[in-house]
Amino acid sequence: MSTPTIIKETPLSMADLKSEVDQIQKRDGELSYRTKRTHEYLDQFAIKGSAKLSDALRKMDMARLKDDQIAKIVDLMPKTVDDLKMIFQGTTLTLTKENMKKIVDEVAKFA
Question: Do 37 and 58 fall within a single domain?
């Protein structure tokens, strides 16, 4: 049995994952059972246009935001600063209220 090696780990938002699954479906023609179930889930819950939001958050130039945190923001689309605080409650990330407001305003443009 072969043992795969992980070359690189990158966090993906649900919209990014959906586009990857779509590419796999085009390439292979038919998806496996688990991939089909994942695709069905992503069809229901992935937000269209969130790739643009991901790019916009990266361009905001907040050095403290990492890729996995941006993916969480894109997937959950917080509507208020309190919602954003709940997303980062278990992390060591500290953002000013002004930066949080900027993030929420940016999310509101894409919601």
Answer: no
The reported pTM is 0.80
Which range of residues forms the domain containing residue 86?
A: 50-110
Alpha carbons 7 and 66: distance in angstroms, whole number: 19
Two tokens, residue 60: 């905001």
Q: How high does pLDDT run on average in the chain? A: 89
How many domains does the chain fold into? 2
Environment class of 103 (CB within 10 Å of its CB; exposed 0-12, middle 13-18, buried 19+): buried
Cβ-based neighbours of 103, under 8 Å, separated by 6 or more = 57, 60, 62, 73, 78, 84, 95
